[in-house]
């Protein structure tokens, strides 16, 4: 079948031939997961996204919707970017539709079902609420432990779902910006999501957001630890002029101390044998710098924001480097 680049080149050639014949240019539909699988990967990283984008730009191709921001198992279409005013680049706003929960059709109940059907489903699945839906897209309400408790406390009959459901929060579009959707979800505890065909495609809860945050925050915090340990490790070992020279490749001269260095600056500083010797570490420089390079690549992925998070191997690498640096600094082996 060929590599990802070979497949794109083949499609671009076929599109060119279609246009020469006066025919409608062909396109190719597949899922995002299948697309990145062409490159032997299971997740989108910043380096892979850049590699694919550069190749598609050279071949005048694009994906609709954009493969970088679409849900991992959604369908995209690779097509010609010829004549596109945006040059094939899509809106980079992160949408609620990138979250798995927004693309997982929610369990629901009908208004006239016995209350015990709803409570059993909620208990078995550890749900706080269930949407009350008729047909594919008509949302009648939401039933929750709160709404059930309120009805019982007021002495109201609550034999069927409709007796103790509450008015639903207005569903949000699957294309709604994630940042804007977070406020509504935090306020109400949930939000139903509607797809382009107006059907309910998912329900995103405050718990989903919390789990997503923890999934992404862990690596972010570990990277912060690593950067902090590196600053401690090099503190007082290099002059401001030496650090400035190290950062010239980034076009920066406004370095007044180790705290002003970027992660790339740390890597370049410690990669110089004459600088490394000053630290007096019983550690192999090549191995150390290689692992810092891995952390730098992972750091770019974390800052890139990918709802899929990091691979288990990348998370393991971050934890290992963070603990290793912590040990070096704690024992003061460079002093």
Notes on the protein architecture:
The chain has three domains: 4-92, no CATH class; 101-198, CBS-domain, CATH 3.10.580.10; 209-331, no CATH class. The longest helix is centred in the middle third of the chain and has 29 residues, at 206-234. It is flat. With 335 residues, the protein is an alpha+beta fold. The strands form three sheets. It has a three-stranded antiparallel sheet. The chain starts with a helix and ends with a helix. 47% of the residues lie in helices and 12% in strands.
Please summarize what this structure is.
This protein has helices at residues 4-21, 32-37, 46-59, 115-125, 145-153, 178-188, 206-234, 240-246, 263-271, 273-276, 285-304, 312-331; strands at residues 28-31, 61-64, 75-80, 129-134, 138-144, 172-173, 190-194, 200-205.
